[in-house]
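2024-03-11 09:14:02 INFO worker-7 job=invfold-0412 stage=load source=structure_tokens
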């Protein structure tokens, strides 16, 4: 038949090819469609064996490593929590010691000061008081710095506490006597004046006796919070005092001298605006003295009895 392919030229079916009608779907011969079987089976048979993921392959750190990391994290968190609790307890202890010592600080009234320094005016007398306080706080700082060279590291927290309370006692005495010199004694009894001086020290400012609402007349939680903040600032500034080889002694003396001068300058700047001249002052009663005053040695150490 014209147009037909001779039998000798016809391709023989490949082995494994489907034997069916010569004209399969889409006009393709069955032997041209390849071996029979589902496509998924053929694809799976051609996929390399090393691409299979073993169900036992790890997807993260081993359980032991995870447990160890969790234990370290929990230990660090607990250490931070305990460290914060100890720091707050130390601040609360120092605040209580400052508050306990404050009413025991002996304060000279204006009449006593003028008898001791008869030839000095208000500014010269204030300079004299500041010089004495600066000498006292620098001596305390030098003593703590000298103790840092001794092989007694456990005693360092005690030394720092002694310095903070000692410096606070000296500066509180200075603040009280500066108010006497400038004629602005806070009203009230010993307890009320002590609270006012503590408020002045915590805020590093003079007391405006014409506005009682601006300072505390009692040691309450708000005042203690301000005292803790002031003590924390002093502790941070006093850390260089622990440098060894007597360097800490020089640094401690220098920093305490600088801080006391700065405090005195701020207090005096406030008191000058409120100053009452000596000749215009009404006659004031003598200051009430504490029943158990701090001795000069205790005043320098700040530890009390």
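2024-03-11 09:14:09 INFO worker-7 stage=emit residues=305
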């Amino acid at each position: 038949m014209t147009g037909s392919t001779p039998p000798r030229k016809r391709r023989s079916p490949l082995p494994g090819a489907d034997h069916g009608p010569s004209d399969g779907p889409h006009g393709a011969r069955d032997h041209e469609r390849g071996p029979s079987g589902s496509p998924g089976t053929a694809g799976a048979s051609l996929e390399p064996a090393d691409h299979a993921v073993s169900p036992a392959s790890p997807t993260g750190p081993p359980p032991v490593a995870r447990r160890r990391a969790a234990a370290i994290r929990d230990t660090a968190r607990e250490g931070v929590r305990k460290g914060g609790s100890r720091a707050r307890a130390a601040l609360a202890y120092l605040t209580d010691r400052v508050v306990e010592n404050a009413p025991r600080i002996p304060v000279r009234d204006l009449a006593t000061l003028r008898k001791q320094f008869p030839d000095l005016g208000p500014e010269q007398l204030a300079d004299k008081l500041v010089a004495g306080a600066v000498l006292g706080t620098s001596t305390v700082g030098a003593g703590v710095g000298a103790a840092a060279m001794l092989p007694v590291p456990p005693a360092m927290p005690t030394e720092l506490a002694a310095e903070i309370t000692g410096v606070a006692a000296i500066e509180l005495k200075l603040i009280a006597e500066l108010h006497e010199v400038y004629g602005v004694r806070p009203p009230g009894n010993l307890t009320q004046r002590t609270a006012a001086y503590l408020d002045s020290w915590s805020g590093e400012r003079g007391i405006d006796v014409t506005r009682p609402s601006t300072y505390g007349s009692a040691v309450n939680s708000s005042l203690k919070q301000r005292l803790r903040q002031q003590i924390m600032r002093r502790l941070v500034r006093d850390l260089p005092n622990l440098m060894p080889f007597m360097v800490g002694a020089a640094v401690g003396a220098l920093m305490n001298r600088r801080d006391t001068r700065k405090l005195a300058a701020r207090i005096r700047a406030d008191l000058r605006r409120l100053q009452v001249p000596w000749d215009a002052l009404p006659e004031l009663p003598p200051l009430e003295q504490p029943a158990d005053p701090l001795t000069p040695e205790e005043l320098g150490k700040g530890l009390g009895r």
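2024-03-11 09:14:09 INFO worker-7 stage=report msg="The chain has a mean pLDDT of 75."
2024-03-11 09:14:10 INFO worker-7 job finished
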